[in-house]
Write a structure and sequence with these properties.
- The structure is a homodimer.
- With about 300 residues, chain A is α/β, with parallel strands linked by helices.
- In chain A, about 50% of the residues lie in helices and about 10% in strands.
- The first copy, chain A, has 12 helices and 9 strands.
- Chain A has a 6-stranded parallel β-sheet with strand order 3-2-1-4-5-6. The first copy, chain A, has a 3-stranded mixed β-sheet with strand order 7-8-9, covered by helices on one side.
- In chain A, helix 2 (about 40-50) links the parallel strand 2 (about 30-35) and strand 3.
- In chain A, helix 4 (about 80-85) packs parallel to helix 5, helix 7 (about 180-205) packs across helix 9 and helix 7 (about 180-205) crosses helix 11.
- The first copy, chain A, starts with 5 loop residues before the first strand and ends in a 20-residue tail after the last helix.
- At the A-B interface, helix 7, helix 8, helix 9, helix 10 and helix 11 of A face helix 7, helix 8, helix 9, helix 10 and helix 11 of B.
């Protein structure tokens, strides 16, 4: 029994993130009982088949009964409903957390439902892949990635430390900031990139002069990188856009402003300006690799024959 | 001796692409002599050290003397100068090709210098990585990728077939189209993605409210994907922007139009519109994987511990 052992963990939602947590908890022996709940009976059956937990319960309320740690891994637009549903069943002293990509909205939705004596500590593991659903998870997903906690003022220190220790046990490094700042940071590092990726793939899809088959065949020249993000779960990303609107609109405005400046340099053939813009971005790539957040292998270390036809 | 053996190949420019060709030619035994030329003496010395060819000649003109196949792999803005320089030394019957990312401009720059009896056939292998220079090349770079030839009207069929066979011997598949269409296709699949990537990395770098250290730490949530393209060679990309201006400006206009539409959906909370936009892009990713142009492994198959600290 480690320092971060919980008698009963309830996982509400068992997609990519929920099922990765389940797998890691099992691999590291962090819990006695792991109760898994999903509003989709199909997903729940799949989780059982994959042997992700120890109990499979359709009703979220029943799943959280007696749990010491409750982790909500649902699209952020569903957080309020889940909070309302589980509130009457939460055990005093339980830690309730989530993994949502927006934090201001999640706090606004969930906090009003949280009973006294329950430790509600919002969280967000900065990890994922373009795949979704319980089959997509894997125990090592959080290894070396950051998890951001956005505790509300007055949060119990012991509870916070237990939750941070839990994420560390999953391989994460843990940071803390307020929800508003989190939402600004994520708007630029995650939400804007996804929106831009979805957009450029849409633009390519709409062309009359270039066929879809050409876009696909020649995608290795850059385009294919964007299609990975644009293959992410549409429900999750719809909710992110709806629930981090202000920060996203600010980042979009800045992006468009910068793009107009770059476009003007192209139109007027300002080679020096273009060269300078294209030079300074190299340093950031280098820093990301040095910080352990990406690989230096060419093309992300893609297999050389990346799915070749033969 | 295979069907595509050349007595003497001259490689003008020995960066990522040139040095990958050199390595592949050597690995497959496609040439007797491989003369390598670079206007940078440092690069040429490095090529010699790496043992990429059989002769190392600073002057491009001397390098092409007696060559049956001349491949020019320089930033597209330098094509005209190279063409002028080598023209007097080209052997009648020689094939001259290039690997530039824009084709209309390369034809306009090079064609006027090409002597009668020389087969000038512009080309563009759709392959690369974010790394540059002679050390970055590898023999398998063209494996499974497309190479587009944009022959000028009246091009000798035998010469074209020899060049296509050469690319096939390097592992490429070969396509043919006119230069104007090539430039439109590449504007969407390659030039726009790179420009957008450079731009978003610049936008992130300029924020006052989010620190650079935060951008780097949390980059695994999407941003890091863009930094790879934005780490590409600035000279090459300055030249692409200057030499495919019209097609790029058209794609940028379409992209911005689509982004304004998406932005409006976010501002007005139109969840259905967002969901639809985010759904249709998944199919393209699937097609790219099915066509052998990307891997289905999560996160491009990045190592799980992607460059973790310690």
């Amino acid at each position: 029994m480690t320092d971060v052992y919980f008698d009963r963990i309830a996982l509400i939602g068992i997609g990519l993130i929920g099922s990765s947590i389940a797998r890691a908890v099992k691999a590291k022996g962090l819990a006695g009982t792991v109760a898994i709940s999903s509003r989709s009976r199909e997903t729940l059956a799949r989780a059982r088949k994959l042997d992700l937990g120890t109990e499979y319960i359709h009703e979220a309320g029943k799943a959280v009964e007696g749990a010491d740690l409750v982790i909500i891994s649902v699209p952020v637009g569903a957080s309020g409903k889940v909070a309302e549903e589980i509130a009457p069943y939460l055990k005093p002293g339980a830690i309730v957390t989530d993994v949502g990509s927006t934090k201001g909205s999640v706090v606004a939705q969930m906090l009003p439902h949280m009973p006294k004596g329950v430790h509600f500590i919002p969280g967000h593991p900065i990890a994922g892949t373009e795949h979704s659903g319980p089959d997509a998870g894997f125990a090592e997903l959080f290894q070396g990635r950051w998890c951001i906690l956005t505790p509300i003022q007055g949060t119990d220190k012991d509870a916070k430390h237990r939750l941070a220790a839990f994420w560390r046990a999953l391989g994460s490094r843990v940071d803390e900031m307020d929800a508003e700042h989190h939402d600004k940071v994520l708007a630029i590092v995650s939400h804007l990139p996804h929106i831009i990726a979805y957009n450029i793939v849409g633009t390519a899809d709409d062309l009359e002069t270039v066929t879809e088959s050409e876009v696909i065949k020649y995608s290795a020249s850059g385009f294919r990188d964007f299609t990975r993000l644009a293959a992410s779960d549409p429900t999750m990303w719809r909710d992110v856009c709806l629930h981090n609107k202000d920060a996203i609109l600010e980042m979009l405005a800045r992006f468009s402003e910068d793009l107009a400046y770059l476009q003007r340099a192209i139109r007027w053939g300002d080679g020096e300006k273009l060269f300078n813009l294209f030079t300074r971005t190299r340093a950031i790539r280098r820093s990301i690799i040095d910080a352990g957040q990406d690989t230096s292998a060419p093309n992300f270390g893609r297999p050389l024959d990346a799915g070749q036809e033969d």
